[in-house]
Each structure stands twice: as C-alpha cells, then as structure tokens.
Amino acid sequence: MRDLTQGSITAHLIGMAAFIGLGLIFQTLYFIVDLYFVSRLGNAAIAGVSAAGNVFFLALAATQMISIGVMSTVAQAVGRKDEAEANLMSDQAISMSLAGAVLMLVFGYAFGGAGVDLMTADAATAAEGRAYLYAFIPALALMFPTNAMVSALRGAGVTMQTMVLQTATVLLNAVLAPVLIAGAGTGVALGAAGAGWASTIASLVGTIGLVLMFPRVQKYLRLHVRTLAPKFDAWKRIIFIGLPTSLEFLLMFVIFVVIYWVIRDFGAEAQAGFGIGGRIMQSIFLPAMAIAFAAAPIAGQNFGAKRYDRVRETFKQTALIGSAIMLTLSLLCHVAPELMARPFTNDPAVLAITVEYLQIVSWNFVFSGLVMAAGSLFQGIGDTRPSLLASATRTFTFVAPAIWLAYQPWHKLEYVWYLSVASVVCQCALAMWLLLKTFKRKLPSPALAETPAAAACQG
Fold first, then answer.
1. pTM of the full structure
2. Residues 327 and 285 sit within 8 Å (Cβ to Cβ)
3. Smallest Cα–Cα separation from 160: which of 56, 327, 265, 22?
4. Greatest extent of the chain over all pairs of C-alpha atoms, in Å
C-alpha cells in the first residue's frame, strides 16, 4: 500500500503515471499489433476489425462501473486507514466482475454479430468484423475481473507490478498475432479471427498471472474467496460511483457507432481511415490519460483523509501537466500526421482520410485533457454524476447534429470531424463549471476546515 496523503503531489502524479502510462501503452498495443497485421489483409479487414473493435468500448463501459467504484472506495478507505473497509470493497468488486464476465459472454455472442452488421458498409467488411469479434469476446469477458483487481490495487497506490504483467501479455499477443493471423510458421492462417484469438489467449494468461500476483505485491488487500457472496449494500456503493462513468463510456460507444453509421456512405475507405485515425488518437492520448488515472487515487486517498487542500492541488497539477502534454500532441498531429498513419495503410484514399481526421480533431486535444482531469477528480471524490452530465451534452452537440447532417445533400466527411471538435469544447466548459461547484460543496475552504481544530485547541 502506498500512502498518497503525504509527500509531493506532483511527484506522486508523475511516479504513478509513469507506470500507469506504460501499462496503458501496452494495453493499447493489443489493438495496434492486431491492426498492423490485419492491415495486410485489405481494407475490408481493417474496416471490419475496427468496427467490431468498438464493442471494446461497450465492454469497457460495463467494466468501468466496477473499476471506478472499487478504485474510489478503496482509495478513500486507505486514506482513512480503514483496512477492513478496503478489503470488503475489493472482494465485492471481484464478485461483481465475475457476474459481468458471464453476461459479456452471453450478450456478446447473442447480439454482437448483428451490431457489426449495423456498423459496416458491405458484406465483406461485416464478415471480417464478425470473425474477429467472435474470437475476441472471451478477452472482453476477462476484462471484468482483470480491471476490478487492477483498480483495487490502483486505489491502494500499487501500479508498477500490474504494468509489468500487462507488458508481458502484450508481448505474448505480439508473438501470437502473426502466427494466428498470417499463419507464420504454421501455414494455418486464421485471418481476422486470428487477431481476436491472439488477444484472448494473451488475456487469459494475464488474468491467471494477476490472480497469482494480487496478494504478493502488497499486504493491505487480500483475495477472500469465502467473502465473494454478494453484499448488496457494498454493490450499491460501487455502482453509485461507477455507474455514471460507465454511462460515459457507453456514450462514447454510441458516438463511435453513430460515426461509423454516418460515414458508411463514403465507403470502406472512410471507415478504415477513421478506424486507423481513432486508434492512433487513442494511443497518443495515453500520456495524458496516465496522469488522469494517477490523479484519481491521489484525490481519493486525500479526500478520505480530509486533506482537502491536497485534493485541490491534485486537480491543479493534473490540469497543468495534462494540458502541456495535449498541446504537444496537437502540434504533432498538425506537423506529422502522415508519419503516424503510414505504417497502417498504403492506400492513398485511406491515408488521406486518416491524415485529415487527425489534423482536424487535434484542435480539441487540450480540451479533452481538461475533461479527463476533471473526470479523475470526480472519481476520487466519489461523485461522478457531474462528469456524466458534461459528457451527456454530446448527445445534443454531436450525435443529433451528425445524424441530421448525414441526410443533407451537401454533407462532407470533414464536417463530422469539425462537429466533434465543437462538441468536446462544450463538454469541457460544462465540466469545469461543475467541478468548481463540486469543490465548493464537498471541499470546505481552508479557513472553515481549520476552525473546528482551532476551537478544539482553545477548548
């Protein structure tokens, strides 16, 4: 266990973010590795795997309900030095995650294929997407217990060991991908399905490793099999904190589905270009995401310890560091977008769409960084409803206008990207305002916080 209520907040942020960032990088490399080898199969495979890969956001949305809830409750319990409470919330989160994994398998195989058909532009693309998805669904199910355990450890300030394990699983995926996709060394090429199986096998190995590692990397949390029976009061607390964040990720999934639907009339090249551009953007966001992920347990432990001044300082440092990173990434997308896109496609049409996408959406990178910083503080404080409210504005500022735009005769692909930029700016403005209101409501000012202590001393 790492005490985040003492010491430099900036040092905690950078130290934890370094390990979280490496973990996120290797986690994202699952998709980059798959995309690299799948891109050799043609535009239909790229578009199909990219479309099917959006189910990842749906699974991620569901896992966040548990992951954010357990991270926040464990962090606050650690801040209060309440070991029994921290273990209770960790055990119940794992119990919830096992139920979530079963539901993912059932609904994934029952409805996933129909979802891919809806998002794809033609039958060939749909076939590739289905092949990938059916092999990838077990990996999505394993995300539930894996993310629950990783988030519980993050709430306790443990990040380095999980990063090492994630690195090992990605290396395994990188070895398996060419073997299963292209049949390297075996002569049995599974195509797009091979990409899904590579991720599933690596995820299974990683999950087993995490179960073995969990009690060995810290002494604060334990895996108590006998206490996995549901305790619904604890489930309610986890859901209250995690559900709004889960709905945010679900909204992200909806937005991606809408984009694929809106641009499908532009053909598989447009969907492939957006798929590549979206994966590149997710990858280069990782440093800022790592800072935000580190900020949440820091804010949570200090909120639990009633160190409200440190909660405010956590946001300040997160916003400053995150904005600097995002500004740098924005400049990179304006200067060298083709350099980042070319490894994934040699098709001039796909490359042009990817480059245009990155150049336009990079205008909202700084605003996206501030949204992530605010979201991490809402998670640490244990009230993520304001973050959901800010994200929900994109239903009105992006989803509805994009659907309307698709029916206009003058509709152009780049209009969708500009609309996305405008909607993120609006989301950021509301998130900042709601965060300030939350600070006033939940964080007493220094003068007020000191008054009871001063009164007690005088008494």
1. 0.78
2. no
3. 22
4. 83
